[in-house]
Amino acid sequence: MPYLRIQHVLTSERKHQVGVRGKVAVRKVVLGNGLTLLIRSNHSTPIVAFQAYLRGGVRSELPSRSGLTHFTQRTLIKGTQTLTAQELAEETENLGSFLHSFTGKDTFGLSMTLLSKYVERGAEILADCIRNPRFDPEEVGKERNLIVAQIERNRDEFPHYTMDLCEKVIFARHPYRLSLFGEIETIGNLGRDDLIQWHKRYYVPWNLVIAVVGDIKADRAISVFDKAFGGFAGGPVHDKEPVREAPAKKARELIEERDKKQVSLVLGFRAASLGSPDYFACQVLNAVLSGMGSRLFIELRDKQGLAYSISSLYEARLDYGVFKAYMGTSPEQEVQAKEGLLIELNKVRQKTVGKDELDRARKYMLGLYEISLQRNSSQAARYALYEILGVGYHFLDEYPARVKEVTARQVKTAAEKYLDTDHPCIALVRPSRASKG
């Protein structure tokens, strides 16, 4: 007998053409307590992946409590009410399993990969972590110290640090400006009770999507998770929506001087959100500009020699997306590098990309898509992410066709709309005068 009444089952399974992976059937089930299951069977190897995604993350944090999600997530898998941290680690290891927690700007959760013969015990462990974390005071203290060390290390990882710094320029008020890790001061002020209350608020079934991909039949997966999450209750999360924020109307710049020899430069812009009609055009636009065969790499690194490293990133989120272009250059070339980057971004705004360049960008994207989905865990993560953020799990399987539909004109329109080169948001980490000698 099932432990939970199944509230809704999608009996007509969606089937989508997914590149070389062929037809895929995903079954969606909403249990009586509101927990959503997404199941895709893949019997090619005896492995099953679980990805549990919840909405929240940095988007739900206050500046004074920055880093609370990450802090809670790290401590969540350090023991439950029935297993100490050591026992939990040993049991997952004995199952040949990987158990990880993660935090993002819009989401957070747990991931687990294991042999299919251990799927029942794996689901029990996942449910135990989600429902009954111990938050042992000693483990909380250990994790606090590790996070502080992580924040300090991150300051020396200049590409990532400067990318994060740019978020503070792009967003003046929205929580996206906050760091995933928090700040040393905020982490120091957070205690065990803060973690417990945060967990109680967000870890509820109505806020939870679990994707199961691998060597398991859908009916068995439903039965296993129905049992593991029996008695798990809690209503929807009613968070106050973050403040809406207009794009920058003037150029903004944040500069840090450090004891280093290289300049790290990031130009950032607000871009299309995940649910925007412009999402796929922005994806192709980024592909035009990024990669070793891209405009930025060829023109600024190969031809002009202005960059040690160069890349661009488009990240679509629930409220707003961000586009960031990064360059690592020498202090002597800082001004020229910034001007060169703005020139290249202006070119894609002013002139429609050619057919060959558009084809290269789309092929590059589709190749990355196929490679990124080779693992069950990657497929499960994307299904769960898209479902919890409201665009639907099928968004993943529709991706190749949607990319192929993007036109050169749509790419130019997206560049004109989002790459406001008259008002860039600039983050710059440069050598201090003492470092320059």
Short note summarizing the structure:
This protein is of the alpha+beta class and 437 residues long. Helices cover 42% and strands 21% of the residues.
General description of the model:
The chain has 437 residues and is of the alpha+beta class. It has 2 domains: 6-228, Cytochrome Bc1 Complex, Chain A, domain 1; 252-436, Cytochrome Bc1 Complex, Chain A, domain 1 (2-Layer Sandwich), CATH 3.30.830.10. It is 42% helix and 21% strand. Strands 1, 2, 3, 4, 5, 6, 7 and 8 form an 8-stranded mixed β-sheet that branches. Strands 9-13-10-12-11 form a 5-stranded mixed β-sheet. A hairpin with a 4-residue loop joins strand 3 and strand 4. The protein is globular, with a radius of gyration of 23 Å. The protein starts with 5 loop residues before the first strand and ends with a helix. 45% of the residues are buried.
- Can you tell me the CATH class of the largest domain? Alpha Beta
Number of domains: 2
Evaluate the radius of gyration: 23 Å
Please, how many helices? 16
Percent of residues in helices comes to 40-55%
Provide the CATH topology of the largest domain: Cytochrome Bc1 Complex, Chain A, domain 1
Element-by-element helix/strand order: EEEEEHHEEHHHHHEHEEHHEEHHHHHEH
Percent range for β-strand residues? 15-25%
CATH hierarchy: architecture of the largest domain: 2-Layer Sandwich
